[in-house]
Amino acid sequence: MEEQDITVLRDKLVALNQIREEFIKLELDPKYGIFYDQNVSPLLLSLLNLSYANLNFTQSASLLNTINNSKNSEIKDLLHLVYNIEEISENIFCELEKQIKALIKSYNK
């Protein structure tokens, strides 16, 4: 995962956080708040934690690459982990979009 990918993921998280803040400002019916707390918030938190982990693993792989006695297999393992986390993050992001659309749709009824 390149730094550009991490930046894109961070920007998406910032945008999602702004959406959350806008939902709070709407003073929704409590059932929408419950929906948000149960369906949206855990996904946001998971995505945020995965992005932090990915950033740390990417930095670790980069640092290992600069050490002369580090094994290539260790670096490859970290990079595979980074790509796996990225794939999981993309799946969570897709589910998060579905949940936000469902929330908006139910609010507009």
What can you see in these coordinates?
- With 109 residues, the protein is mostly helical.
- It has one domain.
- The longest helix is centred in the middle third of the chain and has 37 residues, at 30-66.
- Helix 1 (3-25) packs antiparallel against helix 2 (30-66) and helix 2 runs antiparallel to helix 3.
- It has helices at residues 3-25, 30-66, 72-108.
- The protein is elongated.
Low-confidence stretches: none
How many β-strand stretches? 0
Average residue-wise pLDDT: 81
- Please trace the helix and strand order, writing H or E for each element: HHH
Regarding quaternary structure, what we see is: single chain
Q: What is the global morphology?
A: elongated
Question: What is the CA-based Rg, rounded?
Answer: 18 Å
Provide the number of structural domains. 1
Which tags fit this structure?
109 residues; mainly alpha; 89% helix; 0% strand
Q: What does the secondary structure layout of this molecule look like, with pairings?
A:
Layout: H1 3-25, H2 30-66, H3 72-108
Short description:
By secondary structure, the chain is mostly helical. Helices cover 89% and strands 0% of the residues.
